[in-house]
Automatic annotation (TrEMBL):
Gene3D superfamilies referenced in this protein's UniProt entry, alphabetically: Cytochrome P450 (1.10.630.10)
Predominant cellular place of this UniProt entry's protein: endoplasmic reticulum
Reaction(s) this enzyme catalyzes, per UniProt: vitamin D2 + reduced [NADPH--hemoprotein reductase] + O2 = 25-hydroxyvitamin D2 + oxidized [NADPH--hemoprotein reductase] + H2O + H(+); alfacalcidol + reduced [NADPH--hemoprotein reductase] + O2 = calcitriol + oxidized [NADPH--hemoprotein reductase] + H2O + H(+); 1alpha-hydroxyvitamin D2 + reduced [NADPH--hemoprotein reductase] + O2 = 1alpha,25-dihydroxyvitamin D2 + oxidized [NADPH--hemoprotein reductase] + H2O + H(+); calciol + reduced [NADPH--hemoprotein reductase] + O2 = calcidiol + oxidized [NADPH--hemoprotein reductase] + H2O + H(+)
Subcellular location: Endoplasmic reticulum membrane; Microsome membrane
Oligomer status and interactors: Homodimer.
EC number of this enzyme: 1.14.14.24
Name this protein carries in UniProt: Vitamin D 25-hydroxylase
GO term, biological process aspect, one: xenobiotic metabolic process
Functional pathway: Hormone biosynthesis; vitamin D biosynthesis
Pfam families: p450 (PF00067)
Amino acid sequence: YAVIWWWSSWLSLLSPDGSLGHFTILFFFFPKKIFSLDLGGISAIVLNGYDAVKECLVHQSEIFADRPSLPLFKKLTNMGGKCLLNSKYGRGWTEHRKLAVNTFRIFGYGQRSFEHKISEESIFFLDAIDTYKGRPFDLKHLITNAVSNITNLIIFGERFTYEDTEFQHMIEIFSENIELAASASVFLYNAFPWIGILPFGKHQQLFKNAAEVYDFLHELIERVSENRKPQSPRHFVDAYLDEMDCNENDPESTYSRENLIFSVGELIIAGTETTTNVLRWAVLFMALYPNIQGQVQKEIDLVIGPNKMPALEEKCKMPYTEAVLHEVLRFCNIAPLGIFHATSKDTVVRGYSIPEGTTVITNLYSVHFDEKYWSNPEVFFPERFLDSNGQFVKKDAFVPFSLGRRHCLGEQLARMEMFLFFTSLLQRFHLCFPHGVVPDLKPRLGMTLQPQPYLICAERR
Ligand code: HEM
């Protein structure tokens, strides 16, 4: 596996547009829809293409809903992860997922005023961009703050200013961990956990960062729950503490202070790292293709106008903008391998026996480049999401949020954020590269694919 990884790194360097990477290699070297790998003693299968992913995650959804017991996650959660994203499929996951889905609805997209709160955040975001007065700058920091503030409103009931260095530091080291989690050294740690005793290596940096994030979140949770009135929740943290109270006599309950901290951490990073990177890629592609940017702006001017804040009800009247955002999600593959799954029982797929406890790698990248479902998948072409009348059309093989029981629980929130931030940005600014120089388009590899750091000029339209 290490050899494949190493070779694929070289091939990704050699490809002219930088788009060939580890994930296409997994697809091309192994054109089979399903094949097995031995990750240093961890037996795994890779699912390639839409049919295989759907067959497992949808048709056998319960069997494929587990997560692997990787030493990394065991070490991070100290207890095998009884919370949300990294949790095994069982009571802990069911309780935490249900609570998160409900609170995201109650304090987030279920509230009419929530859209207004995203628009308010957009104004802070746009005003901060305005301070650069068209000079080149890296947008990453501002997008990260704006996006994480939307999740912060649901989880803590408050936003953090763009000058809050403590919160920003926490997000930075957390997102560094997303990159470290896909590093060779951490792969080795998963295969040979005894290397954890070595005092150096990227796994040690990862554990140090995780401990710092844990302490920060612990204090933050204490602060936002200080004046809490039981059974009158104001945000996710209150709602979680209420559940803990209700279940205090149940010895099997999975609600605990520790799991609260892990859940909050998982929700913040899952919501921030992904949506931020989609918007960073979207900005990059708008500067790369000024004609596409112009067409989006034409639609914005026609449907919303130059001064009114964009509203979600306008989305259905803006098929081209929708198509562009969908093409960014397809082409850029923010979570190229999703999050690893595992089988909770022995099963058979396409005649292959797959034992219980097998790690399952869902190659979502291969689904978005599956030639059975996409013509010329290697071309960035938003029109593939439009019919002959220019209306938006959904595509089956569009799976950036994955499928089945573990599919992304923040999809609805992410879609709201992407539309409102993207349209308000292009309504106010024209985006271009400084001196027209196109930056490196090769993605930076981690659990997510993000663009290399780049500078952009945002000029008032
Ligand atoms: C464009 C933005 C986003 C993308 C592309 C994305 C993508 C994904 C993917 C591929 C998975 C893995 C699903 C699987 O295991 O099969 C996932 C899981 C998850 N996502 Fe997202 N996500 C996004 C935004 C968000 C947001 C905004 C939140 C919440 C604030 C969120 C929370 C989660 C959680 C908690 C899980 C784990 C679900 C579980 O294990 O039950 N995501 N996401």
